[in-house]
Specification:
Blueprint: E1 2-7, H1 12-17, H2 20-26, E2 30-37, H3 50-60, E3 67-72, H4 82-90, E4 98-101, H5 109-121, E5 130-134, E6 151-154, H6 159-167, H7 182-196, E7 201-208
Parallel strand pairs: 1-2, 1-4, 2-3, 4-5
Antiparallel strand pairs: 5-7, 6-7
Length: 211
């Protein structure tokens, strides 16, 4: 199965599905990570984390040639149209069978824009694409309504990989009790796991699913 993880920023993939990705790659699914923004991340921090994203991919089992940076301006998505961005995504010729992206309720406008791009890509026209949205710490929980998961993935065996991957985006980590801290990431995984009887879990919302 070809899986596209479509996100706005470098670190979104780890925060949202950094435990699920290595499970998919271990099961021989072909995972593609598509970042809409350039390598520069959240101001005022101006580090270029493109190389870190390749290191993250390797750690999670994603091939380097399956990592894409589309170069949009961070926090300037109002300068783009969905149709133009989706043309860029379509030019990658990934043709996914499953799509994982950000939530429509996130406080971050780039994430909401990315969701709208994903919603168009996942239309069941020529083919049916499984579509999940994920929660991103320090964004989804600060939106205007609660994230409502209806699909959980056991990441008991991959939580350590998720934590190690996030350490590669060192300049994006914050001290606890900020949600985007190493402690916050683990606590969220433990809490989501507790909700469904796992030691640790990532939670998703199914937009559309097919057998």
């Amino acid at each position: 199965m070809r899986v596209m993880v479509l996100v706005a920023h470098l670190d979104d993939e780890v925060l949202g599905c950094g435990g699920y990705i290595p499970k998919l790659t271990k099961d021989s699914h072909e995972v593609h990570m598509v970042f809409l923004t350039e390598g520069v991340l959240h101001p005022p921090k101006r580090n270029d984390n493109r190389e870190a994203s390749f290191a993250v991919a390797e750690l999670l089992g994603v091939q380097r040639q399956h990592v894409y940076h589309l170069g949009l301006k961070n926090q300037r998505f109002d300068e783009y149209t969905i149709i133009d961005v989706n043309k860029k995504i379509e030019s990658l010729s990934i043709d996914p069978e499953m799509l994982i992206s950000t939530s429509a309720i996130d406080v971050n406008g780039d994430h909401r824009f990315t969701f709208n791009c994903a919603l168009v890509i996942a239309r069941p026209l020529k083919k049916r694409i499984r579509f999940l949205t994920m929660e991103l710490l320090s964004s989804t929980e600060w939106g205007h309504e609660p994230f409502q998961p209806n699909y959980y993935v056991d990441i008991t065996d991959t939580l350590d990989l998720k934590i190690r991957a996030m350490k590669l985006y060192q300049d994006q980590l914050m001290p606890f009790p900020h949600p985007r801290s190493l402690e916050g990431i683990e606590y969220k995984a433990r809490t989501r796991g507790m909700e469904v009887g796992y030691q640790a879990a990532e939670a998703f919302h199914v937009v559309r699913w097919f057998e």
